[in-house]
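Complex 193.
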Amino acid sequence: MLRAAFFGLWIGFPLGLHAVDFKRDIAPIFKKHCYECHSEASGKKKNGYVFDDLKVLAGDIRPSGMIDPGRPGQSPLMELLTLPPGDNRRMPPDGDGLSPKEIKLMRDWITEGAGLEKKSTTKPSGLTPKKVPDKPEAPAPEQWTSADGKVITAVFVAVEGGVVVLKMNGKPYRVPLEKLSEASRKQAVERKP
Ligand code: HEC
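Predicted structure with heme C bound:
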């Protein structure tokens, strides 16, 4: 889990390759559970928190803010959402609260950097995003080192253009070759089919 968080930051975040999409996955959760008391739409801004104005929400996304990007464990929001029913700080205050699935989405969203926009196609030209093939056999994970010396363990999938596709915890990550150490770059390129 820790590794996944780190990996998401190192690779997923800068490239904007989010598995969780704010608009698709997170906004509906806020809408369903929070807008009633925290939105411009309802005119209620309990404690100043508004979740349908992205500018206001963005202000709460920062280290030491309600949402600490990349660190769900340090994000007071996650704590509020997961308090037991009856705790008077729990959000939403009444009802069943978020489902385990919604909580997981929220946590994953924060882990991936709590982005508000889809940063889709800022890849260098000539790189067409391809679907990562799902291989039937399970290849063994290998160690990869980033250009600045961090080590992660992931399964090699493919090299596409200047990008190596790695898989961790079943999720594909695309890493520009120049972000890898020389040895890892070689490791990737030599595996090219
Ligand atoms: C029924 C109304 C209601 C709903 C629904 C609701 N809240 Fe709140 N929220 C409040 C009130 C009232 C406060 C102020 C509580 C206090 O000061 O004790 C508050 C405070 C907060 C705070 C500030 C807490 C703090 O410690 O400063 C956050 C963050 C928050 N809510 C997030 C949410 C989120 C996220 C949701 C949806 C999952 C949500 N709320 C749903 C009424 C609501």
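The radius of gyration is 19 Å.
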